[in-house]
Amino acid sequence: MSRIDLHTHSNASDGSDSPGEIVKKAVAANLSAVALTDHDTVGGIPEFLDAAKAFPDLEAIPGVEISTVFGNREMHIVGLFLNASNEILTAFLEEMRNNRKIRNEAIRIKLNSLGYPLSYDHPDLAAAGDTASIGRPHFARALMTSYGFSSIQTVFDKLLKRGCPAYVQRVLPDPIRAFEAIHASGGITVWAHPIYRQRNERAWARRIMKRFTPLGLDAVEGFYSLFGPGETQMITELAEIYGLAVSGGSDYHGENSPNIKIGVGAGKLCVPAELLPHLKGISKNKISRSTDLQIQ
Ligand code: AMP
Ligand code: MN
Ligand code: MN
Ligand code: MN
C-alpha cells in the first residue's frame, strides 16, 4: 500500500532540510504524496513545487501550519492544497510572522538576562533567514552550540518550554481566522496533532470537533508520529461522527527532531494514500464554492 506524509517542515521555518531536500527524501521513502506545512510561512512552497517537477510520481501539496489558541490551549491548524500566492492568506501570515518577531525579541532579552546572550547574527539564528522565521528550535540549537547544552530537548526542558524561564507566550489568533485565511486561498483545514498520547483526551477531542466543524474545520490528523493504533482509532471514529475527513503526517523537522523520519515518523507511522481522494474532494468543493461567491 502506498503511503503519504501531509505534515512536514523545511528550513523555511524550523526544519533543517531545504524544501528541495524534503522532496528528495519523500521520493526516497517511496511516498506517493507529500505536503510542505511550514509554520506561518509559504516561503518554501515555490522551491518545493519546482523540485517536485522532476518526480511526476510524487504529488507535492502546498501547505502551511498556523498556531491558534482556544481556551488556554493551542490548536495547530494545517492548511493543505492552498494557493500560496493568495493575498488574503499571505497578509494573514505576515501578521502572524510579525507577532513571532516580537515574541522572538522578548525571548532574546530574557536569555540575555539569564546569562545566555545571543545575537541575530549567530549562525543558528541567521539560518532562519530573517527574525520573523526564527522558531524556538533555532534558539535551542544556538544555545546548544554556544553554551554547551547536550541536546535541543535539554534546552526546551530547561529554558524554552511553557513554564520555563525563557518562555514567552506569542499572540495567537482564534482558529476561525486561520480557517478563513486557508479557505480564502482554496485550501482545506486540518486540526493537527489533536491529542497528546498517554492522556485520555477523548472528551477534549469531541468538544473541539463538535464546536469547530460547523465553523470551518474540514479534517483532523488521525495518523501522527506519536500516535499508536489506539489514538488513530479514536480520532478516526470521532471524525466519522462529526463528518470530518482524516489526514495524517509525521511532523518531520529534519535534524531538529532527530527521531522522526519523513513518511515513517518514529518508525511505525503509515499514513495510507487512500485518505487523499477524500481530502482532495473537499478542496475541489471549496474552490467551486469560492468561485460561485465571486460570480454573485
Ligand atoms: P515556536 O513556534 O517558535 O514557538 O516553536 C514551536 C516549535 O518548537 C514546535 O513546532 C516544535 O518544533 C518545537 N517544540 C515545541 N515544544 C517542544 C518541546 N517541548 N520539545 C522540543 N521541541 C518542541
Ligand atoms: Mn516546529
Ligand atoms: Mn504543531
Ligand atoms: Mn508541525
Walk me through what this model shows:
The chain has 296 residues and is an alpha/beta fold. It has 2 domains: 3-93 and 171-295, TIM Barrel; 101-160, DNA polymerase, domain 1 (Orthogonal Bundle). The protein has helices at residues 19-28, 45-52, 87-113, 123-126, 136-147, 152-160, 175-184, 202-212, 229-242, 276-295; strands at 3-5, 31-36, 59-70, 73-80, 188-191, 219-224, 245-249, 271-272. Strands 7-6-5-4-3-2-1-8 form an 8-stranded mixed β-sheet. Strand 5, helix 8 (202-212) and strand 6 form a beta-alpha-beta unit. The chain is globular and about 50 Å long. The N and C termini lie far apart (44 Å). It binds adenosine monophosphate (AMP) and manganese (II) ion (3 copies). One manganese (II) ion (MN) binds at residues 9, 14, 39, 135, 253.
Q: Report the β-strand fraction as a percent range.
A: 15-25%
The total strand number stands at: 8
Helix content: 40-55%
User: Which CATH C-level class of the largest domain is it?
Assistant: Alpha Beta
Number of helices: 10
Strand order of the largest sheet: 7-6-5-4-3-2-1-8
Order of helices and strands: EHEHEEHHHHHEHEHEEH
CATH superfamily (homologous) name of the largest domain: Metal-dependent hydrolases
According to CATH, the fold-level topology of the largest domain is TIM Barrel
Overall morphology: globular
Tell me the layout of helices and strands.
Blueprint: E1 3-5, H1 19-28, E2 31-36, H2 45-52, E3 59-70, E4 73-80, H3 87-113, H4 123-126, H5 136-147, H6 152-160, H7 175-184, E5 188-191, H8 202-212, E6 219-224, H9 229-242, E7 245-249, E8 271-272, H10 276-295
Parallel strand pairs: 1-2, 2-3, 5-6, 6-7
Antiparallel strand pairs: 1-8, 3-4, 4-5
Bound molecules: adenosine monophosphate (AMP) and manganese (II) ion (3 copies).
